[in-house]
Specification:
375 residues, 5-stranded antiparallel beta sheet, 11 helices, 17 strands, 28% helix
Length: 375
């Protein structure tokens, strides 16, 4: 449920065990009608047979359609996981019903209205995780969301039924060592929506309705649902900018122009940075960076030496926000940073090698930025 993209899905279910001609005719009918997601019932055949039929249909008529696997139809959890692991490149996920929970005293029941698809969601979807964080069970994705309140608990104040709220994905325990040190984003018992870091995994927000604590709800009066859903990634951006401190009259480099990166541009512009450089491989996202306030954009796909002007002397950049989790981007930023510059690492894909000698001799401060909370 991207904030700017709509998915037209047929959820009635088509049996994969249909004769192939009928199966193809059914799916063709929905693709012709503009559907880009179709629920498939599997499990009557051997899973290998089901997968061969799915691949055959995709190759023949539906290369881009998403198949929602109805795992309640004859498959157990282990079989569904195995099925998913075999077809990571096939745009397949599980579709299932879940029982709606009832909010307790300090909770609310929210009807989801909009959600953003984060890069981590794509890593989960395409690769089963990223770095050391991998699926160990089925998990609902989603942590950028907004919705309308359906029910409120008896102790809830300041919120009302029908009100639009931005939903914070951060749900710390408020009792562990790090929560008591005022570092809730490092909570030892964090229940962050759509996270496979703990086990059992924390289920995400891409559901028709979800129960949340009052502390997770920010009133979004006057906003559209899609705008409210952007509060979570904007909080990530604000948390990263806060790691730097004073940005007045600083030259900034931002590698990557995804949604979080674009919102970093907005934040550092408001913090009175003098010159904002942004890099990406896509001209489309670079133009969005310009609209957000970037002074100079660098397309490193068409011009690999685009940052050479920032490397003059011992570097021309005061602060580098590395948002891709890319070793190449990190290294290019180290070269561009002035002595005593700051490198803020947001991108989280896996481990990478860093140019320690250059970091040391230029006295660069490398600091991570992880999630958010009070933002």
């Amino acid at each position: 449920m991207g904030a700017n993209n709509r998915c037209k899905a047929y959820a009635g279910g088509i049996d994969i065990a249909f004769p192939l001609a009928k199966l193809i005719a059914n799916i063709q009918g929905y693709t012709d009608a503009g559907f880009n997601a179709v629920k498939i019932k599997v499990g009557q055949n051997d899973p290998k047979v089901d997968m061969e039929r799915i691949r055959a249909v995709r190759a023949l008529i539906a290369p881009d359609i998403t198949f929602m696997i109805d795992a309640n139809y004859g498959l157990n959890v282990e079989q569904v996981i195995a099925l998913g692991n075999k077809v990571k490149d096939q745009n397949i996920f599980r579709f299932e019903g879940r029982q709606t929970k009832t909010p307790i005293a300090d909770q609310v029941l929210i009807s989801l209205k909009a959600g953003g698809i984060c890069g981590s969601n794509l890593h989960y979807y395409k690769n089963g995780g990223f770095g050391s964080i991998q699926f160990r069970e089925l998990m609902v994705l989603g942590h950028e969301a907004s919705g309308e309140i359906l029910e409120i608990g008896s102790d809830v104040e300041g919120l009302s039924i029908g009100q639009l709220v931005a939903i914070s994905s951060s749900h710390p325990c408020i009792a562990c060592e790090y929560c008591l040190r005022a570092q809730p984003n490092h909570c030892e018992n964090m229940r962050f929506y759509g996270s496979a870091m703990p086990f059992p995994h924390i289920q995400g927000a891409f559901q028709q309705s979800i129960v949340a604590d009052v502390s997770q709800c920010a009133p979004a009066d006057g906003l559209q649902a899609a705008e409210a859903a952007m509060a979570e990634p904007f909080s990530v951006s604000l948390h990263a900018v806060k790691q730097v401190g004073n940005l007045v009259e600083k030259t900034v480099l931002i590698t990557g122009c995804g949604p979080i990166d674009i919102m970093i541009i907005l934040a550092v512009r408001r913090a009175l940075a003098t010159k904002i450089n942004a890099t990406d491989l896509s001209e489309f996202t670079l133009q969005k960076a310009t609209l957000a306030g970037a002074d100079v954009i660098h397309n490193v796909a068409t011009n690999p030496d685009a940052l050479s002007s920032l490397n003059v002397g011992k570097g021309q950049v005061d602060v580098h926000f590395e948002c891709l989790g890319s070793e190449i981007a990190l290294r290019s930023g180290v070269v561009a940073l002035r002595p005593k510059g700051r490198l803020i690492q947001l991108g989280l894909v896996g481990d990478m090698s860093i140019p320690m000698q250059a970091l040391t001799t230029k006295e660069i401060t490398l600091k991570g930025s992880f999630r958010h909370h009070e933002e």
